[in-house]
Design goal:
Length: 438
């Protein structure tokens, strides 16, 4: 007789899988900056090769909504566990194959074509990951611990980024640039094959959630979950997408934009900025778990409003500290924004998953998260960079970030507390405008 795994083990499995997925997704970005322009786009000029490699990198973000739609459809019809395993396997196979891919010198134009195809597959895999991992953690959790357990897939994102950054930092320390360009860049991709085996073993041991099993027994399984979620919960989709802007915006702002800002505008070394982001990942992980527990205790909606409001205000003093170019103040300023981001991300998974009925929950939560990722991870950085180029001041960038965070804060205000804080203590009852489940 097998023992049913507890919610803590389920959360750990969601975390490990999320770490692996985001490790895979991020090592491509690091390899893009280091080697792909020379190995796969050598016929371009140096600038053209870099742009072509970055375009191939961006393809992964375009594919993420496709992965969310596919995984959402089958996750609501077949089950959460099956799609979690499928997304992990999809990502792992694509990443390992990139590590085995012949370069332009070996097979010509087929090399960049296959690279783009595999990046598309990577995007599909990671697009289906978050919704399934969040649902498995939240639906298995005790009602008064849903935000805490839901934070585990979230901390997989900075953890995966941290591991990938350390992997490439190690490569640059161990191998010469020529060796790195020749073959050593493949090692992090091939190592993914080992990680995938570990992830599959961990995820194979988890069970399907009781909420999905009850929906299946009651035959409350939507034939077309995507159509059904737009029909039954259009307002939740709208509000959920808007509230999902802030987290990805701040994540990309801290890990990508500020690294570029520190090197180009403050003339700090890229190594200094990279190490600052690596060190920041540790308190980021710890604060996100603390924020998840606080959201269960004090209310997920309340904590989300506090986090997004803090971020909208704190971005201005953050730039005052960062612009000194003194490393301790740069770190302190970024830590302040990391704390605000942690509060947002600690509450978000439990909120998003509870906004939708079980029969369309995978689809609804995945769509909202990926819409937020496209806006926050893709569009907002471009707007921020354009604002700085036009006005020549960090205040313009701070206004862009602040407005996005305010949009997320305002989006959550009309959602009734009972919908977002299911199972959480409710020390006081307040009347909110309702976005009812239709």
């Amino acid at each position: 007789m097998t023992t049913k795994p507890g919610p803590g083990r389920i959360a750990l499995a969601s975390y490990i899988g999320s770490v692996i997925e985001w490790y895979d997704f991020n090592i491509y970005g690091l390899a893009t900056a280091l080697v792909f322009s020379k190995q796969f786009f050598p016929s371009f000029s140096e600038a053209g090769g870099t742009l072509a490699a970055l375009a191939a990198f961006a393809v992964g973000f375009v594919a993420r909504p496709v992965g969310a739609l596919i995984s959402g459809h089958f996750g609501d019809r077949v089950g959460r566990k099956a799609m979690l395993v499928a997304s992990l396997l999809t990502m792992g196979v694509a990443t390992t194959l990139i590590g085995l891919l012949p370069t332009y010198a070996a097979i010509g134009v087929w090399a960049p074509i296959l690279l783009v195809v595999l990046r598309l597959v990577q995007g599909i895999g990671v697009g289906g990951e978050w919704g399934g991992a969040a649902l498995m953690a939240v639906e298995h959790a005790p009602p008064n611990r849903r935000a805490l357990y839901g934070a585990f897939p979230q901390i997989g994102i900075p953890s995966g980024i941290l591991v990938s950054q350390l992997a490439f930092l190690l490569l640059t320390q161990v191998f010469s640039d020529d060796t790195l360009q020749s073959w050593a860049w493949r090692l992090p991709f091939l190592f993914s094959g080992v990680l995938i085996v570990v992830g599959l073993i961990v995820r194979a041991s988890i069970t399907e959630t009781e909420e999905f099993e009850r929906a299946r027994e009651a035959r409350d399984i939507a034939r077309l979950p995507l159509v059904e979620v737009f029909r039954r919960s259009p307002l939740q989709l709208f509000a959920g997408s808007l509230l999902s802007f802030a987290g990805p915006t701040l994540g990309t702002f801290l890990s990508v934009y500020m690294v570029s800002y520190g090197t180009k505008q403050l003339h700090l070394s890229s190594g200094t900025m990279l190490w600052i982001t690596v060190v920041l990942s540790l308190p980021w992980i710890a604060m996100m778990l603390f924020a998840g527990r606080a959201a269960d205790r004090f209310g997920r909606k309340r904590m989300f409003v506090i986090g997004s409001g803090l971020a909208a205000v704190a971005v201005f003093p953050m730039f005052l500290m960062v612009n000194t170019a003194a490393v301790p103040l740069v770190f302190t300023g970024l830590l302040l924004m990391t704390a605000a981001n942690s509060v947002i991300n600690g509450a978000q998974p439990a909120m998003l998953t509870q906004m939708f009925p079980a029969s369309v929950r995978y689809s609804g939560a995945s769509i909202c998260f990926q819409v937020g990722s496209i806006v926050g991870g893709g569009i907002v950085p471009l707007v921020a960079a354009s604002s700085y180029a036009r006005f020549g001041t960090a205040t313009a960038v701070a206004i862009v970030i602040g407005v996005v965070c305010l949009v997320s804060m305002l989006a959550v205000l009309p959602v009734r507390r009972e919908l977002l804080d299911v199972g959480a203590p409710s020390p006081q009852r307040t009347v909110d405008h309702s976005l009812s489940e239709q």
